[in-house]
Specification:
Order of helices and strands of chain A: HHHHHHHHHHHHHH
Oligomer: heterodimer
Strand order of the largest sheet of chain B: 6-7-8-3-9-10
Number of helices of chain B: 9
Largest interface: A-B, 21 and 25 residues
Distance between the termini of chain A: 46 Å
Number of strands of chain A: 0
Largest sheet of chain B: 6 strands, mixed
Structural class of chain B: alpha+beta
Strand content of chain B: 35-45%
Order of helices and strands of chain B: EEEHEEEHHHEHEHEEHHEEEEEHEEEEE
Helix content of chain B: 10-25%
Strand content of chain A: under 5%
Helix content of chain A: over 70%
Distance between the termini of chain B: 34 Å
Radius of gyration of chain B: 25 Å
Amino acid sequence: MASQPEERLRRSPIERATKWLVSGPPFVFLMFFFVAPSIIMVVASFRYPGEFGGLAPIHAADPNTLQGFTLETYRFFFSDILYSQILFKSFLVALFTTLICLALAYPLALLIARSPKKSRDLMVLLVVLPFASSFLIRVYAWMILLGPQAALSQAINGLLGAFGIAPVSLLFSPFAVLIAMVYVHLPFMVLPLYTNLEKHDPNLLDAAQDLGANTWHRFWKVTFPLSLPGILSGSALVFIPVLGMFAIPDILGGTRDMLIGNLIKEQFLATRDWPFGSTLSIMLTLVVLLVVWIAAKLGSTKGRYA
Amino acid sequence: MALLEIRNVTRRFGDFVAVDNVSLGIEAGEFFTLLGPSGCGKTTILRMIAGFDLPDAGQILLDGKDLADTPPEKRPLHTVFQSYALFPHMTVAQNIAFPLRMARRPEAEAKKMLQEVLEQVHLTDKAGAYPHELSGGQKQRVALARGLVNRPRLLLLDEPLGALDAKLREEMQIELINLQRDVGVTFVFVTHAQVEALALSHRIAVMDQGRVAQVDEPARLYGFPQSRFVADFIGHINMFDAQVVEAAHGHTRLSIAGLGEIIASPHDGVAAGARGTFAIRPEQVRLGTHGEVSELKNHFPGTVHNFLYRGDVTVFKVQLENGLLLEALLPNSAPGRAELYEVGDAVRVGWRHDAGVFLHG
């Protein structure tokens, strides 16, 4: 007797084993190196710092030493507005970096997407070419470009001097941080935008024009709304890493340009206050999750035609 | 004066002449079709009317005014694209209202026009749906409604039924005819499907290699093609090399190599000795074994070479004595009619003296 269709459709043991062999290793990797550390971080944020760094024991023989669990680090975070301010400033830097990247990347992505097929690949290659050199070297290069002896500083300060204004330092300033943030993250905005724009049906623009839309309306009524998914993914790829970035402000920022990334790094490596560093990391993660949630909300209402 | 006048228009792409000195006049209220095989220049003409392309030479006039300096968005005509080109991020209502918004129609008026056209294309209940939620036929109707809503002087349709399956296409043909009659907008329709062109159009321009081969009403085009190309392109037809033996007042006598003489209807300007082609439609050819065929002016013996049963009709290929194959159509109005003749049967084929046409050259 022939077996039931359900039975015949069921996967063979080999097929099931293959499924696990393929998806198993990355799953195990993420469990060990993402889920487990995240849990450790959450637990650590509720503990006391150890005397010489690390964490204080949960049970100590001496009742006078700090031990067990506490909300102390959270109380500390909210007791001083300074930490919220740094978090908010980081948020603003990430926001401005994202907006500037968007403004610069959109025309470029549009240009590439509407170029002949042959030159497109070359242009995309040029966009990702900076990745060929080390991230740190590219950031250090800005030290030279923005340094007091560089042509840019000379020109600006020369102009300011002519009006009797004291010279300014481009380096070690929020300006330097922002310019490097934009520079480093620009490709992450260009690529998703290009991928989106490249897929647009050129007939839609012809149709819009045929129905009476001028250049302005063709962009704002057709191209732009259709590119929203690309804008959202590009923005996420820029916003999230910038929010936690510490290397660029470390190298190019002044002493007053500390961002949340620098603060977290400092807690772990300089102050050696692991619980507070963990708390700051959790706050940062919450901000990211909030932004991602808002983006997903926007994406689900605007993107349902996709 | 014609609503749209195409005057000696030529368009070249490099060495390739896509449109070669074409002149056409399209009257207001007409359903006009540009018919031809792919690459014949029909789509190029449509794009030039819409303004997406410009002629190298010649003029396109709407209401007597040259359109050369008017960009596509300013031309009072709309296009229905082959791919429909519906805006995927807009609902049916937003899609259709798009040209109204671009034209800055007052809100109340735009709303009324939208409702009206939604009813005309039977999509009132789909106004809030997105294009990806619609069937092919519904998308087609949205594209039509969007093209018509702002009452253009001219609606250009670029193979709009090409993406539909056969049955739906036939339904849409009827809807198109009714819609065009109801709204009274002039339609310029581009297609390579001759059946569609014959069914829909008031007039058809058959195009071949950038030139207009013939402009005529469907029945005249089908019944009286003026060239081998038109005869061959539209429908099925039997063609034989022929020479005029006698061009009399009431008839023409033709000699067909290996077959003998036939009597055909009189042709103006045809003199004895002229060479050309005799063309006759399969449905004009009678097929039989009895006297009825022998009573016709032209009749010849032959054998059934093969036949195709197509349901409504059976297509017989009959081999004549000189080896020529003649196609004849037999309607299957009686059950089992197809089994009347078998391959190899001796039959007679014949046609009336006024059937078929003689083509010069």
